[in-house]
Amino acid sequence: MFLTSLLRKLFGTSSEREIRKIEPIVREINGYYEAYHGLTDDALRAKTDEFRARIKARTGEIQNELDSVTAALKTELPPGERERYFDRKKELEKELFETEQAVLWEILPEAYACVKEACRRLKLRADKGETINVVGIPVRWDMIPFDCQLIGAVVLHQGKIAEMATGEGKTLVATMPLYLNALPGHGVHLVTVNDYLARRDSEWMGAIYKFLGLTVGCLQNEMGKEERKAQYNCDITYGTNNEFGFDYLRDNMAIRLEDQVQRGFYYAIVDEVDSVLIDEARTPLIISGPAGTSYSDIYKEYNARVANLVQKQTVLVNQKIAEAEKLLEESDKNEEKAGELLVQAKRGAPKNKRLIKLSHEPGIKKLIDRVELTYLRDKKIHLLDADLLYVIDEHEHTINLTEKGRKLLSPNNPEIFVLPDLAEEYNKIDSNPALSLTERLALKERLQRVHSERSVTVHAISQLLKAYSLFEKDVDYIVSDGKVIIVDEFTGRLMPGRRYSDGLHQALEAKENVRVEHETQTFATITLQNYFRMYKKLAGMTGTAMTEATEFYHIYRLEVVAIPTNKPVRRIDYDDLIYRTKREKYNAVIEEIERLHKEGRPVLVGTVSVETSETLSRMLKRKGIPHSVLNAKHHQKEAEIVALAGQPGAVTIATNMAGRGTDIKLGPGVVKCEQCLINYEGKKTLTAEDKAKLAECIKDVPCGLHIIGTERHEARRIDLQLRGRAGRQGDPGSSKFYLSLEDDLMRLFGSVRIASIMDRLGIKEGEVIKHPLVTRAIAQAQKRVEAQNFAIRKHLLEYDDVMNRQREVIYTKRQRILEGENLRDEYLYMIESVVDSIAKKIFNPKLPPADWNWNIGITEFRRYFSTVPIFTEDEIKSIGNEDELYDLVYREAVNAFENKEKRLGKEITDKIERLILLATIDENWKEHLYILDGLREGITLQAYGQKDPLIEYKRESFDAFMELLERINSQAIERFFRTEIVEERRPGLRAPLKVVHTSVSAYNEASKSAGAMAQKQIPSGEKQRPIRVQKIGRNDPCPCGSGKKYKHCCGARKGAG
User: Fold this and answer.
1) Are 309 and 405 in contact (CB under 8 A)?
2) What's the whole-model pTM score?
């Protein structure tokens, strides 16, 4: 620790070192800026065309080759050439990006100077009375970038995160890297947190882009497809993360290229990057539809039973606490027994108010933790848990039923909690010689049904227990108009339209006795983490990123650079005040508000829940103090409340929703001095009187906005966001947090240390503690929670990465189809896959070729290719191994394919190939997502079998994906060969083409019986010459140079898609 601080003093922080490297670039920008003063408006605007010409001059050859390779992929290519062209296309795209970025670095000083000069000219126009229309309000331009903003802009171009304090003008900073990176013409994106900010910023900052000759677009929720496409075709597009993400998913459900709206992922800046990439990271974007099967009724069925179970547990826990209190009063000798009872109470109902109050008594918390650790160390904790109905683990957010709980829930049918081991039971069925094939299939089907029903029941009970024990109304969610609406834990805002996954939302609906919605099936999904990782270059800006710098680097490879403020921060952050109980804490908060209100200072009170904000509001009403409440229930008034929050004497109670994007401007008289002495940087030397006045100011800041925090959040940056509402752009201000040992963070992670410190200091009820040890312990508690949440997000990402790799394969395949790639090779690959499966069914190494399963093979061939293969007797006798059999069947399949192409014609064949392949991919991908959802729900149970759930999930999802690819191949081939063109004749109308599915027809052979086909398989007469297709033999050495046979190397990969 000492060595780290010493090195920082000697060499500066990583941010300071980075800024020192950027300072020469800032000087260069300012040099061009001064030179551009003499240019006319048209000459300045012409700089944009000049920059674009310089980029084109350096990238022209690469772009031309890329265009020719892309065009070649739409034609028929020799076998093996297509993959080589794809590889070359990727190389060229990478080379093009790197060359463009090199040129952009060269022109950066000039481009940034153009933006700065455009800002100066807009200000000159504003000084003459010209205004800009921003969301219907006339606004005068009054901004020219400061040097610190230029530094932030360079950091954003580097593809890093710029941490800039609240009020430092991040919106303006983003304009420079957006302008620069829009010059190559691929389109760049600015991601904001809501539709209003996207529209405001695009119209406000759009004045700069339009002045310099660029176009700017803005995505809004209500826009249609054509409008969206127009916005994406602009040089710069503003929008929310949801709009960008959902457009990506919709584009990958489109069946025509013209239905897609996005045009690539070149460069994006994410505003409030910690909110989007960390807080929102666990919430996937999902496009869904009604599920084929719904289990919503099961939540209603078990709701009353679970409610009864929870009630009985509450009574049981209260009895144990009462018994423990009695034992402690009688004698110290009963301490161990009392400790055991209190541990049971803690594990049965950790939020029990009686237990929380008792744990504040001297030595009690230490006793509970000591007894619990002893039982955990000796692996005997199950002996204590056995007396409970269920056990709650708040740290892991899990609940486990005990044997007593299971008996109470289902006394007449205890088997519902026993899931059959399918692998073991299947083995028993298969090894029973007394069972026929039909009986075996029936037993397996029944076993699968039992497993499925019990899994659903156990899952529903588990989610209902979570709903009752871990989720609180008006804290985690509210009920409005008969709907359960989630409250965002980080912003305090309502999230209508969002639902908890895995049936938890249905459980909450059952608990609150509102309509239980039917389950939905996922059609397309992606997490924000994986969406933003698709961009070639990503940057972000926020006021609070340093605390999560490790996560940003590990997940997104984004470095964080802290940008210095333009004016010194004049906010004083006072030490936390800690009380024993919430009641004492709230009383102290009300007293502080009353004092500051009388002094005429505006006060913003931050709370973590709707419930707390309403409690404080009731207390203030009793005191007769006028105030405003801003929470998830009153969010409609947000703009009006925030606009008045800086007026003299204003009191505003707000959940975390007031923490981001809110600019509280101070009213007249709130700042009392013309020159603030806090962090004074004026030229005048301070007198003794000034220093005395400064000391008084620091002790109790007399002016500016005062922030009161009523509880520490799990994440330090949320607290920093709240503090950042005060002291913007050099204004004076102050902040103070009031805590209690009953707060969730203190109770869960504060450890015994804080309680023991308070015991040693002899803190009595109503007394406050300000102690550096306690403050450090709180900071450590927050770090532990942040580390735990990071681990959870990283673990979830590991699961999602499995699906993401599969999604990339499917979506890439889809995009190639939409972009007009020639699909003949793709269909030949799929034919190879189908032929391979047919050949395996025919082949029997123990018998001569004439006795192989030819009838089964011919039936399968007829099913897929709608015709009967013709094999001569000599050909069958000459087959020596499985590879030769494969070649024979493949020849017949290619014959059928080429005949089909001739009959349909090239144009119609191309259309049908595309439509069939897209429909088959979409249908099977949707089913695959449903399978993965089910797999994900139950995979954690693998841990009980001493298996790593993640490894098992990877293995099982890979197997499911291989089956998906095989299913796509076989279904697409079968559908293609069954498709016929039917003319619909109508009087006076041209007969349109209609694609239909018919029963097997092909060469009129299909209607014949299987027996007739079997007789026809070896016709007499001249031996037919096989059609040879130029391709690499399956047993030939693989051309990639691996030394393996082609069928075990690249051939296997091609077969897998």
Assistant:
1) yes
2) 0.74
